[in-house]
Write a structure and sequence with these properties.
Strand order of the largest sheet: 4-3-2-1-5
Helix content: 25-40%
Distance between the termini: 25 Å
Structural class: alpha+beta
Length: 188
């Protein structure tokens, strides 16, 4: 079902929404980890009650499940799916922010603070036209991460990529973020 290219039928949707129940059952019974099944069961629950499998709301969702839930959505957004292209990390954060009532203000803000404007592994284009990847976040200046330059202005792959700390190089700045599919090699 996860790799299906079209929408779900009613019975397929019900089966997909049973995933957390199956996962909770699989994680039950391990001594010292009695807390784990409840966390796993609530990962797809949402603050506004729109989640599944039980439509649990707000304060009834444990903190760990809230964090895993928003992280799961972020991860799903930045990877290609059969029905849609991958998003940039920046766009994924926009999607999560737009669903503020699903994740709650505290969890959403914590997610944004921890990822910065350009999250780790975000593929970026510099003002020079070179393409790089964020390899470290600058918490003092989220617009100026440390990047590994991977492609030249001519869009050829660099054999020995160089590392640039944008906080220490005022002549370089990020003009956009792109998805792996937009790389000159097509994400391969």
């Amino acid at each position: 079902l996860i790799s299906k290219h079209s929408g779900f039928t009613a019975s397929e949707r019900i089966e997909m929404q049973r995933r957390p129940v199956y996962s909770a059952e699989l994680t039950a019974g391990y001594p010292g980890f009695e807390w784990l099944p409840n966390i796993v069961l609530q990962v797809y629950e949402r603050e506004n009650g729109s989640g599944y499998p039980h439509g649990v709301r707000s304060k009834d969702i444990c903190e760990e499940s809230r964090i895993l839930g928003v992280s799961d959505v972020f991860e799903a957004c930045i990877h290609r799916r059969p029905q849609r292209a991958a998003m940039t990390g920046y766009r994924a954060l926009e999607v999560i922010t737009a669903e503020f009532d699903s994740f709650g203000e505290r969890t959403t803000k914590a997610m944004i603070r921890s990822f910065s404007v350009y999250p780790f592994n975000e593929i970026i284009v510099l003002n020079t036209g070179e393409i790089g990847k964020v390899i470290d976040i600058n918490s003092e200046n989220p617009l100026r991460p440390i990047v590994r330059i991977m492609y030249t202005v001519e869009r050829t792959e660099i054999e020995s990529p160089r590392i640039v700390d944008l906080a220490r190089n005022s002549q370089l700045w990020i003009t956009s973020a792109i998805t792996p599919d937009e790389l000159p090699s097509g994400g391969k």
